[in-house]
TrEMBL record:
Homodimer. One of its GO terms (cellular component) is cytosol. Its EC number is 5.1.3.13. This is dTDP-4-dehydrorhamnose 3,5-epimerase. It holds the Pfam family dTDP_sugar_isom. The active site is at H6 (proton acceptor), Y79 (proton donor).
Length: 140
């Protein structure tokens, strides 16, 4: 299963991500237009805590798109968010967008194409996406 690159406008969410069971490859994409890393992505292996594996958490700040690929048979993923779910502001970028060129570890799926929800299959291309507004610093 592959969960597309989601983010919210209007009520952006920071996310603390933890895997309760299984193994995922988690991706964050910087959507902050004022950032020197705008449009860049980072990927992280996250596994559930076991006696052999320490607790792994990933912080994804507001202004980033987030998605993941399940690398185990199943996985349970828990988010703690800084804001409520805002369906009207939900946006999605196509996981396979050529501009982002995310190097998803699809080889780990042994030749099987990832399962993608119909909603995620309809994600926008990065160059067509609606991005969070640029924050203007307040002068004191």
């Amino acid at each position: 299963m592959l969960r597309g690159l989601h983010y919210q406008l209007g009520k952006p969410q920071g996310k603390l991500v933890r895997v309760l069971s299984g193994h995922i490859w988690d991706v964050a994409v910087d959507l902050r237009r004022e950032s020197p890393d705008f449009g860049k992505w980072a990927g992280f292996d996250l596994k559930a805590e076991t006696s052999a594996e320490h607790l792994q958490l990933l912080w994804i700040p507001e202004g980033f798109a987030h998605g993941f690929l399940v690398l185990s048979d199943t996985a349970e993923v828990l988010y703690k968010t800084t804001n409520i779910y805002h369906p009207q502001g939900e946006r999605s970028i196509l996981w396979s967008d050529p501009t982002l060129a995310i190097d998803w570890p699809l080889g780990a799926l042994n030749g099987i194409s990832p399962s993608v929800s119909p909603k995620d299959a309809l994600g926008k291309h990065f160059l067509e996406a609606e991005f969070p507004p640029v924050e203007v610093p307040h002068l004191v």
